[in-house]
From TrEMBL:
Residues 1-20 form the signal peptide. It comes from the Bacteria. NCBIfam families: autotrans_barl (TIGR01414). This is OmpA family protein. InterPro entries: Beta-barrel_OMP (IPR027385), OM_autotransptr_brl_dom (IPR006315), OMP/PagP_B-barrel (IPR011250). It comes from Hyphomonas polymorpha PS728. One of its GO terms (cellular component) is outer membrane. Residues 6-201 form the Outer membrane protein beta-barrel domain.
């Protein structure tokens, strides 16, 4: 009886210690691909960036994390928008109802967000997770119009974001991860894929 009590107490202590080790901060970083479709663009624009995330694990299931990403190159796109949206008469005919059919480049200045994250262990090392939160994006674009004019546009948007991914523990602290996030911005339809590494402290 006494021996069983000691074993049960020791097991409870070990379980509590293991649980305590699950809580704590973590950092992640890596490559991020974005598909950005600004209002007026005919299709999504491929852009590439780098991203960093910092979070805190409250237990082995729930975390809270922040995200910061920035672009490392611009993507090319075709753009169709009414002149009155820019208040710009490209062909100087006094009519702002014409459509500007332009080509240009779009760049990601930065994207920030905060998310709640739920982790689901699949095996001892493999985990699936989902996250939901709110994000803000800042973009700039350079357009060359049919009239030979150049327009620089900076735009920003915010909205809810949802994603899912998987991670694989290389060691107790170091892991590989990959995920997909959809950013529900009003004026800019954006999705991103991140591949990176993380470290649990």
């Amino acid at each position: 009886m006494f021996r069983s009590l000691l074993i049960a107490t020791a097991a409870t202590g070990l379980a509590a210690a293991a649980h305590a080790q699950e809580a704590g901060p973590y950092l992640e970083g890596g490559y991020q691909y974005f598909d950005i479709k600004p209002g007026g663009a005919e299709s999504g624009v491929d852009t590439h960036g780098i991203a960093a995330r910092a979070g805190y694990r409250f237990n082995n299931i729930f975390s809270l994390e922040t995200e910061l990403a920035t672009g490392i190159d611009d993507g090319e796109f075709d753009f169709n928008v009414d002149e009155d949206e820019f208040n710009f008469d490209d062909n100087n005919d006094g009519d702002l109802s014409d459509v500007i059919a332009a080509s240009g480049d779009i760049g990601l200045n930065y994207l920030i967000g905060i998310y709640g994250k739920a982790n689901l262990p699949l095996t001892e090392r493999l985990n699936a997770y989902a996250r939901a939160g709110y994000a803000y994006v800042d973009l700039d674009a350079s357009l060359e119009t049919p009239g030979g004019n150049f327009i620089n546009v900076e735009d920003s948007a915010d909205g809810p974001a949802f994603g899912a991914g998987m991670s694989y523990d290389l060691t107790d602290n170091l892991y590989l991860k990959g995920d997909y996030t959809y950013y529900s911005f009003d004026s800019t339809d954006t999705s991103g894929v991140m591949l990176g590494v993380g470290y649990k402290f």
